[in-house]
């Protein structure tokens, strides 16, 4: 239904399970890790630079400390800004690690793609529903098309189909933003950016199971506008 389930399939195709490990960015949403936790995999968080690009030096140090075989590495394009993952791709290839490119926050579909997105990943996942008027949507792409040949999705129920149509209609009836609404948002953002940033509190939370945002029953479930397996 969402990119998190396409991501889960990418983890599975990368042979990630309880015997293997995932390298994931330290800055992330819990739903990026939920599918790996559902597979019982060990997760290690790697540091990022200030521009949110992977810190390859720190990644090297982390990799040498991991006991289980690292099966996959997740790399993300944040806030609509594409990163250059070519160096990271080489790093993964040298160590026989599947690079999974997360394009959930940049436009990536079979026909329309943000420049620089989906280039380096062995697998690429995206969330078209964030950019197009559909209730849900997750896309899984593989550079090697044959990797997807044996992937099959389960059809959603009629009630789930109808629920998706209902959500689309409801969103269409919502009030549209006017020029004055956009100007008001810009003014609020200007006020926020003018203030000095307050220091936050770091908190470590360890989880051994997926969060409440992950539903195992939706894994491998497909709808015309929900999970697209793209060669």
Task: Give the key terms.
single chain, 231 residues, alpha/beta, Aspartate Aminotransferase, domain 2, 2 domains, seven-stranded mixed beta sheet, two-stranded parallel ribbon, 17% strand, globular, disordered C terminus
CATH top level label of the largest domain: Alpha Beta
Report the end-to-end length measured between terminal Cα atoms. Answer: 19 Å
Q: Give the ordered list of helices and strands.
A: HEHEHEHEEEEHHEE
> What form results from the Cα inertia axes?
globular
Write down the Rg.
19 Å
Number of helices: 6
Arrangement of strands in the largest sheet? 2-1-3-4-5-6-9
Q: Percent of residues in beta strands?
A: 15-25%
* pLDDT averaged residue by residue: 81
Reported for the largest beta sheet, the result is: 7 strands, mixed
Tell me the CATH topology of the largest domain: Aspartate Aminotransferase, domain 2
* CATH H-level superfamily title of the largest domain: Type I PLP-dependent aspartate aminotransferase-like (Major domain)
Helix content: 25-40%
């Amino acid at each position: 239904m969402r990119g998190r389930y396409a991501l889960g399939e990418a983890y599975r195709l990368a042979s990630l399970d309880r015997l293997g490990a995932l390298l994931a960015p330290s800055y992330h949403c819990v739903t990026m890790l939920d599918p790996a936790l559902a597979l019982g995999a060990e997760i290690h968080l790697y540091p990022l630079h200030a521009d949110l690009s992977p810190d390859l030096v720190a990644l090297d140090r982390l990799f040498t400390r991991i006991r289980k075989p690292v099966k996959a590495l997740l790399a993300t394009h944040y806030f609509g800004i594409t990163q250059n993952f070519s160096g990271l791709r080489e790093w993964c290839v040298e160590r026989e690690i599947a690079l999974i490119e997360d394009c959930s926050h940049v436009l990536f579909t079979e026909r329309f793609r943000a420049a620089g997105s989906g280039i380096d990943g062995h697998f690429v996942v995206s969330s078209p529903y964030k950019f197009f008027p559909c209730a849900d949507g997750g896309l899984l792409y593989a550079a090697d098309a044959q990797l997807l040949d044996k992937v099959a999705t389960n059809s959603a129920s009629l009630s789930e189909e109808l629920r998706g149509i209902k959500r689309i209609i409801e969103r269409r009836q919502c009030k549209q933003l006017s020029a004055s609404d956009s100007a008001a948002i810009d003014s609020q953002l200007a006020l926020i950016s003018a203030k000095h940033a307050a220091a936050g509190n770091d908190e470590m939370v360890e989880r051994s199971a997926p969060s409440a945002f992950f539903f195992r029953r939706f894994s491998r479930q497909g709808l015309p506008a929900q999970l697209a397996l793209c060669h």
